[in-house]
């Protein structure tokens, strides 16, 4: 069996290492991709240090965002051909489907050709974060708003459905705003730094509220916009205290708070006569209950990117499978430094 190089998780809390591992073989409805870029995300610090997703299944590559060139086709693949330059979602629970290796498996349901309007590096910034916010808004277990790509979405009143995004200036927050604009939400409130106000308004926010204000002032400004009718809040930034997002929700109607990371709500600081739902989730399109919604999205996603509906985020380039450099970036995530999105160039492009 052919061997390849990979930067792998070696154990919980252990340093990444460069090792060799077998080149995997694609199954039905899968392709083998020669990886050009593996995109890293903040959660990769938890993967390395706490064993998120992979547990004790080590050594394992990581990196969910993939860009590469189709190298071989599995059975029943007719949507792609060898040589196609593609981008897509890896599977965080399966090492063969991750990016920090020379060759990886991709499920054809969660990938597309890189649009001609963007570069491969720009494409690498999109799959996980966009799909995360798509699922956060439109899956039945999260906000349960119908997707615009489903029959139910054709008659849904997005215009009169307000949305607030705590952490609107984060990468996921920006994509939440863009998705809401695409869907037709009439009121999109971003709580973010003042320096990002113009950018977020350009992306589709109808209002931007300064995150440095006190929680009570932020809540007052939100209520001046939507009254007591806000039923949907996303917290799109790492926040141990989720109480602000819950406080923004309606007091008289039962609303939904969907956070992207761990955190708790201090219910003693709330006044929710109708209660509220705190709904946590994991963005894994391969799950049976998310596969259909995610597959529908990926059928349209590349074309939406081509049209400029979703804007790539800034990135930095990490040359090669350099375990020391990648360890350093993940250390920055752990220290809360929030480095510019790292794109590991596994191959020369």
TrEMBL record:
SUPFAM superfamilies named in the record: GroES-like, NAD(P)-binding Rossmann-fold domains
InterPro entries: ADH-like_C, ADH-like_N, ER, GroES-like_sf, NAD(P)-bd_dom_sf, Trans-enoyl_RdTase-like
Pfam families: ADH_N, ADH_zinc_N
Family statement: Belongs to the zinc-containing alcohol dehydrogenase family.
Protein name: Alcohol dehydrogenase,zinc-containing
GO MF entry, a single one: oxidoreductase activity, acting on NAD(P)H
Gene source species: Trichoderma guizhouense
Annotated Enoyl reductase (ER) domain residues: 11-321
Keyword terms of this UniProt record: Oxidoreductase
């Amino acid at each position: 069996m052919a061997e390849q190089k990979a930067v792998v998780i070696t154990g919980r809390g252990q340093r990444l290492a460069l090792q060799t591992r077998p080149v995997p073989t694609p199954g039905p409805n899968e392709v083998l991709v020669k990886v050009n870029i593996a995109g890293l995300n903040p959660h990769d610090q938890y993967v390395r240090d706490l064993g998120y997703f992979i547990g004790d299944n080590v050594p394992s590559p990581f990196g969910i965002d993939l860009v590469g060139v189709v190298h071989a086709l599995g059975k029943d693949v007719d949507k792609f051909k060898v040589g196609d330059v593609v981008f897509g979602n890896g599977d965080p629970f399966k090492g063969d489907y991750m990016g920090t290796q020379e060759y990886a498996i991709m499920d054809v349901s969660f990938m597309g050709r890189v649009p001609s309007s963007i570069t491969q590096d720009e494409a690498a910034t999109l799959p996980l974060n966009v799909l995360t916010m798509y699922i956060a808004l439109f899956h039945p277990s999260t906000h349960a708003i119908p997707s615009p790509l489903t029959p139910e979405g054709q008659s849904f009143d997005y215009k009169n459905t307000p949305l607030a995004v705590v952490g609107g200036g984060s990468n996921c927050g920006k994509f939440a705003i863009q998705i809401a604009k695409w869907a037709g939400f009439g009121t999109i409130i971003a709580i973010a730094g003042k320096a990002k106000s113009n950018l977020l308004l350009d992306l589709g926010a109808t209002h931007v509220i300064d995150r440095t204000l006190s929680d009570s002032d932020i809540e007052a400004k939100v209520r001046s916009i939507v009254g007591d009718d806000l039923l949907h809040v996303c917290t799109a930034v790492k926040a141990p205290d989720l109480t602000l997002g819950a406080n923004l929700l309606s007091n008289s109607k039962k609303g939904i708070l969907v956070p992207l990371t761990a955190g708790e709500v201090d219910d003693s600081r709330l006044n929710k006569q109708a209660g509220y739902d705190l709904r946590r989730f994991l963005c894994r399109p391969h799950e049976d209950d998310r596969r259909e919604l995610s597959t529908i999205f990926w059928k349209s996603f590349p074309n939406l990117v081509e049209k400029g509906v979703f804007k790539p985020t800034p990135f930095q380039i990490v040359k090669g499978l350099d375990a020391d450099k990648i360890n350093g970036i993940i250390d920055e995530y752990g220290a809360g430094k929030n480095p510019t999105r790292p794109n590991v160039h596994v191959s020369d492009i």
